[in-house]
Specification:
about 110 residues; alpha+beta; five-stranded antiparallel β-sheet; 5 strands
Length: about 110
């Protein structure tokens, strides 16, 4: 196989919260991080709760991949904070597609 490339969406995960809503996860509306390939990028000086990240991680790899237009993974974009008393949500936005080489991301050879 001569072309071992594949594409993933870049993702931006942004905190949204209703005005006056209770926030217990330490987030502020507009806080965000980006996922480019397998690399998570935070703006300088900004943190992100490990518990919130734990709620998001199982979804991010799927959100990076192209999905059918009718798939809920395509249409649903907000995840609730894992603290049931916190009103924040995390909005996952797909960005540009980024191209990767299979050989550069794993030691497992293609058939």
């Amino acid at each position: 196989m001569s072309d071992d490339n594949f594409e993933l969406y870049d993702l931006r995960i942004e905190v949204v919260a209703p005005e006056g809503g209770a926030v217990y996860c330490g987030a502020k509306p507009g806080d965000h991080f980006e996922l480019r390939g397998e690399m998570l990028h935070l703006p300088p000086g900004q943190g992100f709760s490990i518990y919130s990240l734990g709620a998001l991680l199982p979804l991010l790899a799927a959100k990076q991949r192209p999905t059918h237009p009718n798939d809920w993974m395509t249409t649903d974009a907000e995840v609730a904070c894992p603290d049931p008393n916190c009103t924040t949500r995390f909005r996952i936005k797909r960005g540009a597609k980024r191209r990767f080489s299979h050989a550069a991301t794993t030691a497992v050879k293609l058939p």
